[in-house]
């Protein structure tokens, strides 16, 4: 028995001492109306397959790319600045990265040299940021390639291997997606594709491809960490290789031994002239970049005197943060923070909606909080109204009227209802007399039910106690 315990201890300690390093390469589509090198629409999801296409984005022989989409460059610069990157190389140009796959008839993908480098996000260093064109979508199940996606601008964000656990990588990705959402320059997690590299002390670096979500990144790292640890423990070499993540099974499998940059035969694209990033253009972008979410958290704490947890919840979404700043112009910031953090987030989570997808406006939140402040409704009624708000365009007052909830009941009515409750629930009353406190909660609940939540809970407790004790 002791031997088994010692062995377990060795395993646990052994687990802690193996250091893990993880770096990420994240691709996200940039928000533009047209593609990177042609005028085709970027609306690829709703359009029938192969309808948003032209000879350029089909990579047909003899076609030449249009000049680089300026909006895409501006968006990439904004993201680079929000991630504190240096942008001092004023000439940017595109390289051809060669590889063969059915989604890429030209045999090369255009990818820019870094437009920003040496940035950071919450202590994780950003090595570089560059632009790329998306390839088409090969659909082996249907035997087709859909080129609607081909040529959509992407930004690729490459971190240093600064993360030391799957949890840390997950937190970083969440914060990065938040920054991208705030930037309004990218299309968010839905378009994310990430490659993850991971190495353990004493082993080689493995790269995992095919990751499409934050959860996928976390799960694949977790799996890979355990796989590599077991190999190292058994004295087997961890190979340097590229592995694929199979999301359906939450495992990684070997794809190929790692290629070097040489394998891609990078050459500057002779069809595209270099782009000069003008100083004026950079100044314009700097002046209009939105406040990054981590900075907003700090400001909310100082300006509105709310706790960090509330500030983080309220800034989890740009539209929610904006609504809060409108609400606090006429409502006490702490009171508003409490309702928007607890009740509003609760009903949004329940309805699986983001604030921006819901019917709730800042004006409606103000109206609801005013009804509560003026004691026209109780907390309980407030909660019932807010539950209806995500999917109801009507104002809180109108919702209260629809549900017959407006008004707080008078003391006499509470007294009558309490008497009725006591006479109908003898068992609970006698339990309470014997010292069972929960029985009182039950009686309060009955009164609330009969008054449809319009009785004041504090008042109800007082009245019930008086009636029972006398
Ligand atoms: Zn096109």
Question: Could you please describe the fold and organization of this structure?
Answer:
The chain is of the alpha+beta class and 470 residues long. It folds into three domains: 266 residues, no CATH class; 112 residues, no CATH class; 59 residues, Orthogonal Bundle (Arc Repressor Mutant, subunit A), CATH 1.10.10.410. 43% of the residues lie in helices and 17% in strands. It contains 16 helices and 15 strands. The strands form four sheets. The protein has an eight-stranded mixed beta sheet. Helix 2 packs across helix 5 and helix 14 packs antiparallel against helix 15. The protein is elongated, with a radius of gyration of 29 Å. The N and C termini lie far apart (64 Å). The N terminus is likely disordered. The structure holds zinc ion (ZN). Zinc ion binds next to loops. The site of zinc ion has 8 residues, from loops. Keywords: ATP-binding, Ligase, Nucleotide-binding, Protein biosynthesis, Transferase. One of its GO terms (biological process) is glutaminyl-tRNAGln biosynthesis via transamidation. It holds the Pfam family GatB_Yqey. It comes from Candidatus Methanobinarius endosymbioticus. It catalyses: L-aspartyl-tRNA(Asn) + L-glutamine + ATP + H2O = L-asparaginyl-tRNA(Asn) + L-glutamate + ADP + phosphate + 2 H(+); L-glutamyl-tRNA(Gln) + L-glutamine + ATP + H2O = L-glutaminyl-tRNA(Gln) + L-glutamate + ADP + phosphate + H(+).
Q: Strand order within the widest sheet?
A: 5-6-9-1-10-11-12-13
User: Percent range for helical residues?
Assistant: 40-55%
Q: Hetero groups bound?
A: zinc ion
* Uncertain parts: 1-16
Tell me the number of strands.
15
GO molecular function, one term: transferase activity
Organism: Candidatus Methanobinarius endosymbioticus
Catalytic activity: L-aspartyl-tRNA(Asn) + L-glutamine + ATP + H2O = L-asparaginyl-tRNA(Asn) + L-glutamate + ADP + phosphate + 2 H(+); L-glutamyl-tRNA(Gln) + L-glutamine + ATP + H2O = L-glutaminyl-tRNA(Gln) + L-glutamate + ADP + phosphate + H(+)
EC number: 6.3.5.-
């Amino acid at each position: 028995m002791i031997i088994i315990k010692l062995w377990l201890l060795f395993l646990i300690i052994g687990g802690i001492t193996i250091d893990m390093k993880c770096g990420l390469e994240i691709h996200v589509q940039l928000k533009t109306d047209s593609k990177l090198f042609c005028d085709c629409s970027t609306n690829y999801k709703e359009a029938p397959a192969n309808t948003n296409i032209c000879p350029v984005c089909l990579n047909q022989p003899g076609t030449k790319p249009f000049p680089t989409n300026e909006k895409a460059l501006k968006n990439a610069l904004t993201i680079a600045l929000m991630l504190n990157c240096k942008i001092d190389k004023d000439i940017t140009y595109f390289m051809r990265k060669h590889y063969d796959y059915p989604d890429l008839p030209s045999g090369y993908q255009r990818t820019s040299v870094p437009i920003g480098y040496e940035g950071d996000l919450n202590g994780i260093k950003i090595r570089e940021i560059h632009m790329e064109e998306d390839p088409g979508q090969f659909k082996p199940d249907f035997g087709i390639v859909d080129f609607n996606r081909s040529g959509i601008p992407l930004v690729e964000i490459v971190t240093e291997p600064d993360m030391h656990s799957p949890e840390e990588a997950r937190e970083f990705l969440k914060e990065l997606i938040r920054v991208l959402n705030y930037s309004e320059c990218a299309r968010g997690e839905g378009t994310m594709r990430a490659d993850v590299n991971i190495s353990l002390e004493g082993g080689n670096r493995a790269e995992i491809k095919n990751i499409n979500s934050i959860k996928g990144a976390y799960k694949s790292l977790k799996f890979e960490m355990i796989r590599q640890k077991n190999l190292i423990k058994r004295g087997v070499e961890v190979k340097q290789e590229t592995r694929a993540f199979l999301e359906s099974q939450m495992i990684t499998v070997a794809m190929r031994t790692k290629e070097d940059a040489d394998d891609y035969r990078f050459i500057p694209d002779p069809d595209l002239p270099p782009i000069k990033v003008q100083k004026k253009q950079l100044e314009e972008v700097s002046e209009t970049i939105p406040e990054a979410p981590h900075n907003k958290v700090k400001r909310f704490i100082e300006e509105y005197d709310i706790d960090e947890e509330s500030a983080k919840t309220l800034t989890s979404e740009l539209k929610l943060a904006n609504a809060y700043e409108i609400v606090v112009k006429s409502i006490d910031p702490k009171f508003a923070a409490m309702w928007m953090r607890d009740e509003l987030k609760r009903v949004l989570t329940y309805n699986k909606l983001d604030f921006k997808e819901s019917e709730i406006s800042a004006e409606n939140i103000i109206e609801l909080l005013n009804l509560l402040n003026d004691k026209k409704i109780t907390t309980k009624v407030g909660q019932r109204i807010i539950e209806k708000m995500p999917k109801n365009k009507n104002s809180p007052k109108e919702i209260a009227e629809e549900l017959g909830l407006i008004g707080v009941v008078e003391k006499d009515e509470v007294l009558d209802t309490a008497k009725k409750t006591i006479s109908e629930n003898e068992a609970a009353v006698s339990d309470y007399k014997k010292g069972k406190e929960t029985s009182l909660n039950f009686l309060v609940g009955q009164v609330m039910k009969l008054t449809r939540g319009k009785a004041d809970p504090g008042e109800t407790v007082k009245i019930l106690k008086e009636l029972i004790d006398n």
